[in-house]
């Protein structure tokens, strides 16, 4: 409980307020603030299932008493994901808890509304896949932007952000991609309003306009280079 910091004296040491050992090491934790569920992804087993490295659902509505709630394991390892209460153009799933997962070689969409009985809605591969790393919805939830971490090094393309039309969650389509002017390796991206904020290794923070994402274009509108000596495809910066 971080409110303890408000009255702490310098040098204080705290014990954890709650401890969940249902999974072991994980690549990431994804939280849907609307539903109050946390999802371990890329996890090893703890006292509960490792879920084959897929979505490990934990109810954190009572933060001091987290409870294991279910797994999505049928598509194996999930490297990263975004989970939200869906309010997009696919009317079949309004109000459902939808997770879009980067699963190493596919973008895999899952309905996690019933944690004990998740439903895989789609599993979409793409040409040039090397490592499907991370993804994020645009604000209208019509498109998903995705970065493949290894295609720059292995395929020789510049930093490439792929754009999927997910207006039908059961049948996403790749509508295009935006290549940067730089060859750097991409990592994570997040969307706020009409801007996408992309962290790229040597090329630093790049900002794209998502206004016409559904049309397959993401023009760059700004950047902050954290490694000005080079923008090549290497893992530093």
Q: Can you describe what's shown?
A:
With 237 residues, the protein is mostly beta strands. Helices cover 2% and strands 39% of the residues. The strands form 4 sheets. The chain has a 4-stranded antiparallel sheet, with no helix packed on it. A 4-stranded antiparallel sheet has the order 5-6-7-8, with no helix packed on it. Strands 9-10-11-12 form a 4-stranded antiparallel sheet, with no helix packed on it. A hairpin with a 3-residue loop joins strand 14 and strand 15 (204-209). The mean pLDDT is 97.
What are the salient characteristics of this protein?
2% helix, mainly beta, 1 helix, 237 residues, 4-stranded antiparallel sheet
Helix fraction by DSSP (H/I, runs of at least 4): under 10%
Number of DSSP strand runs: 16
Strand content: 35-45%
Give the helix/strand class. Answer: mainly beta
Q: Number of DSSP helices? A: 1
| Spatial order of strands in the largest sheet | 1-2-3-4
Task: Sum up the overall morphology in one term.
Answer: globular
SSE order, one letter for each helix or strand: EEEEEEEEEEHEEEEEE
Mind summarizing the main beta sheet?
Answer: 4 strands, antiparallel
User: Uncertain runs with pLDDT below 50, 5 residues or more?
Assistant: none
| Terminus-to-terminus distance | 33 Å
Provide the residue-averaged pLDDT: 97
């Amino acid at each position: 409980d971080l409110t303890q910091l408000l009255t702490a004296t310098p040098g204080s040491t705290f014990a954890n307020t709650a401890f969940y050992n249902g999974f072991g090491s994980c690549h990431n934790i994804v939280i849907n603030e609307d539903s109050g569920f946390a999802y371990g992804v890329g996890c090893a087993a703890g006292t509960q299932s490792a879920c084959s490295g897929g979505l490990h659902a934990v109810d954190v509505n009572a933060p001091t008493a987290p409870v294991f709630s279910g797994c999505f394991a049928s598509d194996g390892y999930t490297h990263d994901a975004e989970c939200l209460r869906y309010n997009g153009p696919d009317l079949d799933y309004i109000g459902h808890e939808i997770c879009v997962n980067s699963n190493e070689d596919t973008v895999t969409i899952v309905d996690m509304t019933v944690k004990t009985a998740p439903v895989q809605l789609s599993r979409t591969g793409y040409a040039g896949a090397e490592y499907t790393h991370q993804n994020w919805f645009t604000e209208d939830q019509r498109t998903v932007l995705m970065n493949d971490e290894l295609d720059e090094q292995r395929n020789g393309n510049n930093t490439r952000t792929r754009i999927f039309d997910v207006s039908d969650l059961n049948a996403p389509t790749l509508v295009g991609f935006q290549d940067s002017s730089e060859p750097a390796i991409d990592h994570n991206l997040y969307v706020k309003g009409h801007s996408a904020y992309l962290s790229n290794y040597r090329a630093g923070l790049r900002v794209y306009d998502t206004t016409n994402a559904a049309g397959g274009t993401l023009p760059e509108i700004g950047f902050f280079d954290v490694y000005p000596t080079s923008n090549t495809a290497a893992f530093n910066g």
